[in-house]
Predict the structure.
Amino acid sequence: MPLPPRRAAALAVATLSAALALATALRLPAAWESGNALNHVSGAWLTLADDLARGTFYRPLYDPALGYGGTRYFPLVFVLQGTLLRMGVPLLGVAYASSLAAGLLLLFGVALLLRALGARPGHAAAFAPLALAGFAGQHALASARGDLLPVALSALGLAAVARGAGRVRLPVAALALTLAFAAKPTALTAAAAAAASLALRGARRDALVLAALVATGAAGAVAATDALSRGRFLEGLRTVATAGAGADTVVRAPLRLAEELAHGDPAGLVLALAAAATLAASALVLARAARSRDADPRLLPALWVVSSWAGALVVLATPGTGMNHLVELEAASATLLGAGAWAAGPRPLARIGAAAAGVAGLAVALTLWHADRTSSRLAELRETVLALPPGPVFSEDPLVPLLAGERPVLLDPFTIRLGAGRTPDRGAALPETLRRGAFPAVVLFQDLDRPAADAWYADGNLGLALAAEIRRGYRWSAAFGRYHLYVPRLPPAGVVRRDAP
């Protein structure tokens, strides 16, 4: 006897979601072995953690002993990573453990949020893995970057709000949302959704209290971070936060968002479009619920979807950002699909969208699994480290010196270009140092003799001025996959190979 359409759709979503969760779990060992999710941005996060483990909380823009700093990353994620380093956990163990723990917390947070909205345990468990259906979430699981934790904390804060106001729940929600901000400032989108939800449900006083608590906590987090860093945190933000954003980048932000989804994260696009369709089909019902102050389970996730779309547009109006900032949008979309699948209204649409997202997510997980079994960025890194001569290395990827057991000279190759333009006095010595070939080695992502190099360095990492000085002081020596090793044009005698990390 065939199953009723409703049960068949629910079974399809549960099966696909379980397959996605299983494929994700099975592919992670290959991802850890290959290191393909690690890149120079991961290296910047781990350098901040390494600096902290050595006693430096945000290095200066320039320091003769520490090298070059400047970042727009907020502290919570790398503070946790630095704590693990100080406890003796190896660098790669820290990288993968922090990403995995944040991913598991995100799944728990989404499931808890769906339960708070009224879903049964099995339903919540079936829809939670869809939060990782997009490439952004799958990639973040092994990337050692700060994208998963703030979304996980946001989901936990929203779950506290969804359970209703109270003397305990509002402060708990505010704490979770403040911690999310301390991990990533754009996480305020979830706080905005939470406050708007309370206001639309008639709890305006609670909305104001929540907004005040989060605002106070966020201001306190910024003040404490700047004080503990002795002013270096805000100094770095003032220098690199906007990354040269202007009217042209703001106008292009919607196009960039469409490009990131369509070309970089098609599974995320399926998830986002399914949620957008569910939101559009539910708009009239949600509007009536808001006017009558009825508790519709789709209201809070719908507001989270809208605020995360707005947040993504703001972030992508800033140069140097990418698809990793889609994690929140995809988690919010999965939550709305989960809420829409049992609420009165367009349930079939939400279920069909969830099933499509599950298929797309499964394809992403299997594709990444295959890529991790056939290629290895970590192998390229280790070969590069083996070829390094003794001494400090000026590397476009901070992972190279980190895996060599050294402190990176350069924290972030993107922000060094911004800092050079805005505070030229801080980096005045670097061009001369490179021109003289003072570093025993330079490691780049580009072959400087190829035309593509100028396009890469013009508006991205390092800048054309530093690239030109490297050309003057160094010559190409070897390539290891994407890594190009340069040595001084008058190399020191007695180059010694390192032990493998």
User: Anything to note?
Assistant: Residues 5-34+72-374 form one domain.
